[in-house]
Design brief:
- This protein has helices at about 35-40, 65-75, 85-90, and strands at about 20, 30, 45, 50-55, 60.
- By secondary structure, it is an alpha+beta fold.
- The chain has one domain (about 20-90).
- It has a three-stranded antiparallel sheet, with no helix packed on it.
- It is elongated.
- The mean pLDDT is about 75.
């Protein structure tokens, strides 16, 4: 049971090879938004029915379609503290000078 790790898969956080497949029940990703936008915003559906989890550090992940995610963020926005992310989503170059 626990020795059925996913061949060729590494943890994104700790690089462990002890990664198992599972699934998230809701099947949706909700970007962090302000209060009003979270009420009217819609989720982005997970692209893969299977999720992965690391047995060493506990990180669990899945993926969304990046085009659908950008479309969703353009329509409903992101939380106010994420303006640099929204610049990239809207196709503007962020100011990253130090």
């Amino acid at each position: 049971m626990f020795n059925q790790t996913v061949r060729g898969m590494y943890c994104l956080r700790c690089s462990s090879r002890k990664v198992v497949r599972g699934n998230f029940e809701a099947g949706r990703f909700y970007p962090l938004r302000g209060v009003l936008r979270s009420l009217i915003g819609k989720p982005v559906l997970l692209q893969n029915p299977h999720a992965h989890a690391c047995m060493d550090c506990g990180l669990a992940w899945n993926e969304v379609d990046p085009l659908e995610l950008r479309k969703n963020l353009r329509s409903y926005g992101l939380s106010p503290h994420s303006t640099g992310v929204m610049d990239v989503v809207n196709g503007e170059s962020p100011d990253i000078r130090l």
